[in-house]
């Protein structure tokens, strides 16, 4: 049972950390609506922390569906890092927490 609780806590910490990182790079995300309708970048809506928390949760859950996506080199790499952490979560939780 301790491993399950530690795993959940690990996921929640990852979600919060990446949501904070995404919100600090908020200008480097593009909206699907802006991309489809060719709206200018001047009309970018201000995203709240809850939007980045949603993005981080969907990436950590393996769903990956969101209405906005990374548009710069750094934010794309940040998303890749979170996806790699999500993929290797079983190794982290089962190996490191059972030591």
Description:
This protein has 99 residues and is mostly helical. It has one domain. Helices cover 65% and strands 6% of the residues. A two-stranded antiparallel sheet has the order 1-2. The longest helix has 23 residues, at 2-24. The radius of gyration is 15 Å and the shape is elongated. The two termini are 15 Å apart.
Summarize the SSE layout with pairings.
Layout: H1 2-24, E1 29-31, H2 32-36, H3 49-61, E2 68-70, H4 73-87, H5 89-96
Antiparallel strand pairs: 1-2
Helix pairs in contact: 1-3, 1-4, 3-4
What are the main properties of this structure?
single chain; 99 residues; mainly alpha; two-stranded antiparallel ribbon; 5 helices; 2 strands
Q: Kindly report the average pLDDT value.
A: 82
Order of helices and strands: HEHHEHH
Low-confidence stretches: none
- Total beta strand runs: 2
Shape: elongated
Percent strand equals: 5-15%
From the N-terminal CA to the C-terminal CA, the straight-line distance is 15 Å
Compose a concise summary of this entry.
With 99 residues, the protein is mostly helical. It has helices at residues 2-24, 32-36, 49-61, 73-87, 89-96, and strands at 29-31, 68-70.
